[in-house]
Amino acid sequence: MTQKHVCGPGRDAEFFRDLAAVFAKHSNVSGRYAVRCLHREKEVLKVDFAEQVGLSRVEGDRIVTEFRNRDEVESGFDPEDLPVCCEWAGDAPHMVCVQLCEL
């Protein structure tokens, strides 16, 4: 069975070659980061990251992410208690936080 690649090295080989070089160049910090495909969020769940953000929390041995309107999330927390951004997307320097993580 042939599987169609929606993301990853099988689809975007040049991007991943360049990314491998960046990870190798910054090997002292690269272990803190990963590359993730946003296909499920954008195409399946129809999340609009300009208007929505993922809010993740740990429940037992699972990580649960809910997508909420950005305004709702920002107004629902005291500024000092706002979860930290743990995932960014977009083109630098205009990257946007797409996931907040409660610690």
Summarize this structure as a short list of keywords or feature phrases:
103 residues; alpha+beta; 2 domains; 4-stranded mixed beta sheet
What features would you describe in this structure?
- By secondary structure, the chain is of the alpha+beta class.
- It has two domains: 1-35, no CATH class; 37-101, no CATH class.
- 24% of the residues lie in helices and 27% in strands.
- It has three helices and four strands.
- The chain has a four-stranded mixed sheet.
- The radius of gyration is 16 Å and the shape is globular.
Mean pLDDT: 89
Structural class: alpha+beta
Report the radius of gyration as a whole number of Å: 16 Å
Sheet having the most strands: 4 strands, mixed
Shape descriptor: globular
Major sheet: order of its strands? 2-1-4-3
> How many domains is the backbone divided into?
2
> Strand percentage, roughly?
25-35%
Q: SSE string, helix = H, strand = E? A: HHEEHEE
Unreliable runs, pLDDT <50, ≥5 residues? Answer: none
The percentage helix is: 10-25%
How many strands appear in the DSSP assignment?
A: 4
Q: Number of helical segments?
A: 3
Give the N-to-C terminal Cα separation. 41 Å
